Amino acid sequence: MATNTDPAGPWSLVVPLKPLARAKSRLGQAAGDDARPRLALAFAQDTVAAALACSLVRDVVVVTDDAVAAAALSALGARIVPDAPGAGLNAALAHGARSVRALRPAAAVAALNADLPALRTGELARVLDFASAFPRAFLRDAAGIGTTFLAAAGGTEFLPAFGGPSGARHLASGAAEIALSGVESVRRDVDTGEDLRVALALGVGPHTARITDAAAQPLDR
Fold first, then answer.
1. What are the residues facing 138 on neighbouring strands?
2. Which strands, in side-by-side order, build the sheet including 136-140?
3. Mean pLDDT of 88-97
4. Does the pLDDT at position 6 exceed 60?
5. Prediction pTM value
6. Alpha-carbon distance 195 to 108, whole Å?
7. pLDDT tens sequence across 50-90
8. Phi, psi at residue 151, to the nearest 5°?
9. Angle at 127 between CA 121 and CA 150, to 5 degrees
């Protein structure tokens, strides 16, 4: 089990995860439909484990209605919140943030994608440290179009606007763009076979490594 070395870390992370049967549809072309749900869970496990190991992270809240994922991620130390709104990604993130602030009204909250299997704890710490200087801040994905991370300081409205060209939306909303080099693992979300190949080259966590090492066919399509 991943443990947080600093339980008083200032940040609560909200990680959204759709039901595994529907997750990562584009990855099925490369990995096969049988492996796709297992990979989606493994990505989330490696993401959550790395986040919980970060000294700046107080807790991780996973918003999901998937019972298998909830059990696996709870075992790592995450708190599970059902997706009560059932109205898509941004509603789930806002719901997760509200659940955090219902317990700690002044909490600093950040959204983190669930599909960052190469996530490095030290790189996440650098992103969180940078974000702490702003009321709201975001990190674009590796493609420079979407967003993998959005932060809101205590007392600041969260305003998630994920999906599609979300980087431009977050910038237009007044969030500061996080301009850091050397944080590729925080940018590298995985939606396609090519994305997974790049993540594997970076070095994925143990849960993803077990699935990919046991794959019956290479992820080369």
1. 150, 177
2. 79-81, 57-63, 11-16, 108-112, 147-152, 136-140, 176-177
3. 97
4. no
5. 0.91
6. 30
7. 999 999 999 999 999 999 999 999 999 999 999 998 999 99
8. -120, 145
9. 110
114, 89 in Cβ contact below 8 A?
no
Q: Is the pLDDT of residue 26 over 90?
A: no
What average pLDDT does range 138-167 have in this prediction? Answer: 97
Number of residues assigned to the chain: 221
139, two tokens: 């990190």
CATH of 11-208, one of 3.90.740.10, 3.90.550.10, 2.60.40.10, 3.30.750.24: 3.90.550.10
| Domain boundaries of the chain, sorted by first residue | 11-208
Amino acid at 60: V
How many angstroms separate the first and last alpha carbons of the chain? Answer: 34
Q: CA-CA distance, 133 to 173, in Å (whole number)?
A: 17
Share of the chain above pLDDT 70, in %: 91
Tokens 């790395």 locate to 50
CA distances from 180 to 28, 144, 156, 193 (A): 32, 13, 23, 26
Tell me, what amino acid is at 142? Answer: A
What are the beta bridge partners of residue 176? 137
Question: Which of these, 189, 194, 206, lies nearest to 89 by C-alpha position?
Answer: 189
- Tell me the backbone φ, ψ of residue 123, rounded to 5 degrees: -70, -40
